TrEMBL record:
Its main location: membrane. Residues 360-822 form the TonB-dependent receptor-like beta-barrel domain. PANTHER family: PTHR47234, TONB-DEPENDENT RECEPTOR (PTHR47234:SF2). It is a multi-pass membrane protein. The lineage of its organism: Bacteria, Pseudomonadati, Pseudomonadota, Gammaproteobacteria, Cellvibrionales. It is found in: Cell outer membrane. One of its GO terms (cellular component) is cell outer membrane. This is TonB-dependent receptor. Residues 51-171 form the TonB-dependent receptor plug domain.
Length: 857
């Protein structure tokens, strides 16, 4: 679908006209009474009297909802949103090593980059690291202290017409406690029933001021003790490698295992290699510390003009363990006949790793520093129109360090030129008592220092445009500018591709400017029917631009019924990472030619010729409120997504290469992408690209209900639930590819992510006097692991919480809450893969108990 173009001259003229509105507004505004209590809600630039007076489906998680769930981090909340499917919210050493300590949102499973994340209505910078599949995302762990959150609004509708790129699947807006008064201190301790894992968090918030100025300050500290894979039985034997220590040697007589194999630290595999079980060397939940601070000041300059300034900072450090050392994967070195570990009297080839079980796990460090400053000015004209000027700057810096063996130094050590003085041997036989200095000399580090930044400016005017027979037409007009930057600086060893496993790649950096114009109209068609029409034009330069319209209707025939519907287009521009990066990752892949699962490096090159992703979006829904205590909502959603940007799946590339080879073909594209060791025919690494896949078409239903009732002398009850049903998710890898239905699949063999058909929860809360309690029953449907055609069972957990409030304790009030997560200690369903469970769906920690104390005065 070709995007309409607007001429540069017209765009520039409109932009300049928009930027003149602010000084005009300040010049002509006059003294007048306080403005009507109207607010800007997520999904619209027009002020409304009601937060829910909008034709787009909007769900809200309030602070009281978060407390009922026993949440103390953003992850505790967003991972349980039924519409959030396929996100990354916990560590996965092999499949997401660079992003440990981050979290993200994936509405409708349309991609980590297809949901726009905002703080108080303004964009936030992307994370300085991308997911292993190349997706860029906003790190929701680094936004603001959890104690500073007032609510989370989730707009479950395409919103490119309002907010531009990235708002394909919807918008998640994190809003802070700007009006908080007093002082509140919260402390929480949570621990698993079995194992060493625990979380400790301390948060404090203070708010105060006078009639003109209000200040809110908040800070928090989060500390996590790790849960390691050897503390859970379901991980046992799930990570088996044919490259270990003891290792395997290729001689003129064939493959020979280290004599110690089967005696200690290894076992003989069916392919004749000495295997290594590295299952015990991983984190299921890593060691983590996070500091966060937030401050916001609101000042009324006069009766018509208000200014706001907010500052936040987050510092996260994560230590992640893994196997003692990586296997040799990109190169299998020669052990010369004169090496003391050579038992065969001839040059042989070594297949294994430097360190084995006796060395214990290795360590990787991820550090993130995220800074944000945002300001706004709001005012009104004498005519009653409002004006707003917003500006923000946010950045994230990352440091990532992981060790790997240097090819040149390993070869030198095998030849007797190793160590700090270049005169020592490395003996590759097990338990060879090598000098530690020789081993240390063979290792280098990745030393990544990366940074992303985002600068934004918005100018918006809104108000009553005209009167028509059916009511008042409201409108909003605005201009937007943003500057995005990304840079990655790796160590020299990484740049020189000096490693035996991590492969490596160059440094890279880039930036771009984006300009946008947008408008929105709210038109009453009758006393019960209104229409919202909006459009946004964004220009990225170099011929990349987009015009996205949206039309929505809201019909309220009476106080009980509300019917809504919308249709529009959306787009997502290629991220800077996808256009300029050279991504080196590692992945497990099955090799049909050797009948083995191997862990190998994958190199993916950025593609500057990527087209933007485009989507047609449709939503319709109904809300029924037959009484003050009962509310039921049902929404149908549909997305047709074209030109999705994905990274080719290594398994698919390897499978095609094997099929071409078995068919007698030579020189095919797949064969060029799979590089093999000529002596052993083992894969050394795989080359993939970022590409525009053909399409994905998906639809489904969201359901929610809430029933409030108060039996005599029994307190106040609320019975509710939220559910999401995925009807279909039809995708194609390319124009001529076979259609794949991704619903109910783990999607290991395509670009989608784990996608259970049903997800949701049923909840019951109760309050009477100082007592309150809550119960959440959560359900995830069964689905199929397409990698091996096995079933992943459905999963249900029950969370319970009880709280008591001491209303008069000293000069304030205190609340004590106790609770349990996963009361019945349900283990994650079995997956035939590394760690034995699906890290994008299930929680490996089992039953957890917590104590939460808060004091307010």
């Amino acid at each position: 679908m070709k995007r309409p173009r607007i001429s540069f001259t017209t765009s520039t003229a409109l932009a300049l006209a928009g930027f003149t509105l602010l000084p005009m507004a300040q010049a002509v505004q006059a003294q007048q009474g306080p403005a009507l209590e109207e607010v800007v809600v997520t999904g619209s630039h027009i002020r409304r009297k009601s937060q829910f007076d909008t034709p787009s489906p909007l769900s809200v998680v309030s602070r009281s909802d978060m407390m009922d769930q026993g949440a103390s981090t953003v992850v505790d909340v967003i991972k349980n949103l039924p519409e959030n499917s396929g996100a990354e919210f916990q560590v996965d050493n092999l499949n997401q090593p660079l992003t440990s300590g981050t979290s993200n949102i994936n509405l409708r499973n349309l991609g980590l980059g297809s949901t726009l994340v905002m703080i108080n209505g303004q964009r936030q910078t992307l994370s300085a690291v991308a997911a292993t599949d190349g997706s860029s995302f906003v790190d929701t762990n680094s936004l603001v202290p959890f104690i500073a959150l007032e609510r989370i609004e989730v707009l479950k509708d395409g919103a490119a017409a309002t907010y531009g790129s990235d708002a394909v699947a919807g918008v998640v807006n994190f809003l802070t406690r700007d009006d908080f008064e007093g002082l509140e201190i919260q402390a929480k301790y949570q621990s698993v029933d079995s194992g060493s894992h625990s979380d400790s968090e301390l948060g404090v918030i203070w708010g105060g001021g006078n009639e003109a100025t209000h200040l809110v300050l908040a800070a928090s500290y989060f500390d996590r003790d790790p849960l390691q894979s050897n503390e859970r039985k379901f991980t046992e034997g799930t990570a088996l490698s044919g490259l270990g220590q003891p290792g395997t040697f290729l001689t003129s007589q064939g493959f020979q295992v280290d004599p110690a194999c089967g005696v200690t630290g290894g076992f003989i595999r069916s392919n004749g290699f000495c295997g290594f079980d590295y299952s015990p060397y991983f984190d299921l939940s890593p060691e983590e510390q996070r500091w966060q601070v937030f401050g916001k000041v609101t000042h009324d300059f006069n009766e018509t003009t208000t200014g706001k300034l907010e500052v936040s900072y987050s510092d996260t450090e994560v230590e992640v363990i893994a196997s003692p050392s990586f296997p040799f994967a990109t190169f299998f070195p020669t052990v010369p006949a004169h090496n003391p570990g050579n038992l065969w009297g001839e040059d042989v080839q070594f297949f294994g790793r430097v360190l084995g079980a006796d060395a214990g796990p290795s360590l990787a460090v991820n550090e993130y520093e995220t800074t944000r400053i945002a300001g706004s000015l709001d005012g009104s004209f004498s005519s009653g129109w409002y004006w707003t000027l917003n500006a923000s700057y946010s950045e994230q810096e990352v440091f990532y360090d992981k060790g790997d063996v240097l090819e040149e130094r390993a070869v030198a050590a095998l030849e007797g030129r190793g160590g700090p003085n270049n005169n020592q041997y490395w003996n590759p036989l097990y338990d060879a008592k090598d000098d530690p200095a020789v081993i240390a000399d063979m290792f280098g580090t990745t030393g990544l220092r990366g940074e992303t930044s985002l600068y934004t400016v918005d100018a918006i005017v809104s108000g009553d445009l005209m009167e028509i027979s059916s009511g008042t037409v409201q409108a909003a007009f605005g201009v937007h500018y943003r500057d995005e930057e990304l840079s990655h600086d790796w160590s020299d060893d990484f740049n020189n591709r000096a490693f035996l496993n991590l492969f490596g790649g160059p440094d890279y950096s880039g930036s771009r400017d984006v300009y946008a114009l947008f408008s929105e109209f709210n038109i009453p068609l009758s006393d019960t029917l209104e229409m919202q029409a909006s459009a946004r034009y964004e220009d990225y330069g170099s011929g990349l631009d987009s015009l996205d319209p949206k039309l929505a209707l809201l019909w309220r025939p009476n106080d009980q019924w509300s019917v809504r519907g919308s249709v529009g287009t959306a787009f997502r521009a290629p991220s800077l990472f996808q256009t300029i990066a050279t991504q080196a990752t590692q992945a497990n892949m099955y090799d049909p030619l050797t009948d083995s699962t191997v862990y190998r490096s994958v190199q993916t090159l950025g593609n500057p010729n990527l087209e933007p992703e485009e989507a047609d979006v449709f939503n319709t829904g109904v809300t029924w409120e037959p009484s003050d205590g009962l509310e039921f909502s049902l929404d149908y959603w549909y997305f047709k997504y074209d030109d999705l940007i994905v990274k080719q799946i290594p398994d698919v590339v390897v499978a095609q290469e094997a099929a071409d080879t078995l068919a007698g073909l030579s020189g095919t594209d797949a064969q060029r992408r799979v590089v093999r060791d000529p002596a052993s025919n083992l894969i050394t690494f795989v080359k993939t690209d970022f590409i525009n896949a053909s399409s994905a078409e998906t639809d489904g239903l969201d359901m929610s209900w809430a029933y409030r009732f108060s039996p005599q002398d029994m307190g106040n009850f609320r019975f509710g639930g939220t559910w999401s049903w995925m009807n279909r998710y039809d995708l194609r890898e390319g124009p001529n590819s076979k259609k794949v239905d991704a619903v109910g699949s783990r999607n290991k063999l395509n670009f989608a992510r784990s996608m259970p058909e049903w997800q949701g929860n049923i909840n019951l809360t109760w309050m009477q006097g100082s007592h309150s309690a809550a119960a959440y029953l959560r359900y995830t449907d069964s689905y199929v692991d397409d990698g091996n055609n096995t079933k992943i069972d459905s999963h249900s957990t029950l969370d319970l919480r009880y709280a008591y409030e001491f209303e008069e304790l000293g000069s304030g009030s205190a609340t004590v809450a106790v609770g349990a997560v996963n009361v019945t200690d349900e283990q994650p369903p079995t997956v035939v893969d590394l760690l034995g469970y699906d890290t994008k769906v299930h929680d490996p920690r089992g039953r957890m108990f917590y104590l939460n104390l808060s004091y307010t005065f």
